Amino acid sequence: MAREATLVLVKPDGMQRGLAGEILARFERRGLELRGARLLRISKPMARKHYAEHKGKPFYDGLVQFITSDPVLALAVSGESAISVVREMMGATDPLDSAPGTIRGDFALELSENIVHGSDSKASARRELALFFPDGLV
């Protein structure tokens, strides 16, 4: 196993519903370490960079609109196999496919507003952490 860092975003719906503390607590209880946190409102240009791999897909504009609609909490977490651990803890992207006990399985209500985002690979984690933590504190 390798120690790695990854990005987690508590999306606007998670923030509106007051779930940020519960989500962070789940990662900490699992043994992941919080390396950085920022509460911010994502600009449209930043959202376009974040979701660049989805440009041209039918849901792209909706992603950008949603993630910029209210503040998000950006978290940098690290630990052994952090990327896959976070992805497993989040559950499937579609809440209907998410197992109970996962973040989305317990809290998400619909595909387009699914509470959290987590980097899906080492390359994505590096790119996303640099985007959300440009000062390099993580």
Can you walk through the features of this model?
It is a single chain. With 138 residues, the protein is α+β, with helices and mostly antiparallel strands. The protein has a single domain, classed as Alpha-Beta Plaits (2-Layer Sandwich). The chain has helices at 12-16, 20-30, 44-50, 60-67, 82-90, 103-107, 122-132, and strands spanning 3-10, 33-40, 72-80, 116-118. Strands 2-3-1-4 form a four-stranded antiparallel β-sheet, sandwiched between helices. The longest helix is centred in the first third of the chain and has 11 residues, at 20-30. The mean pLDDT is 95.
Annotation keywords:
about 140 residues, alpha+beta, 7 helices, about 20% strand
Provide a brief overview of the structure.
This protein is α+β, with helices and mostly antiparallel strands and 138 residues long. 41% of the residues lie in helices and 20% in strands.
What's the arrangement of secondary structure elements?
Blueprint: E1 3-10, H1 12-16, H2 20-30, E2 33-40, H3 44-50, H4 60-67, E3 72-80, H5 82-90, H6 103-107, E4 116-118, H7 122-132
Antiparallel strand pairs: 1-3, 1-4, 2-3
Structural class: alpha+beta
Distance between the termini: 20 Å
Total domain units: 1
Strand neighbour order, sheet with most strands:
2-3-1-4
Uncertain spans: none
**CATH H level: which superfamily?**
Nucleoside diphosphate kinase-like domain
Helix-strand topology string: EHHEHHEHHEH
Largest sheet: 4 strands, antiparallel
Number of helices: 7
Overall geometric form: globular
The total strand number stands at 4
CATH overall fold name: Alpha-Beta Plaits
Query: Would you state the CATH class?
Result: Alpha Beta
- The portion of residues forming beta strands comes to 15-25%
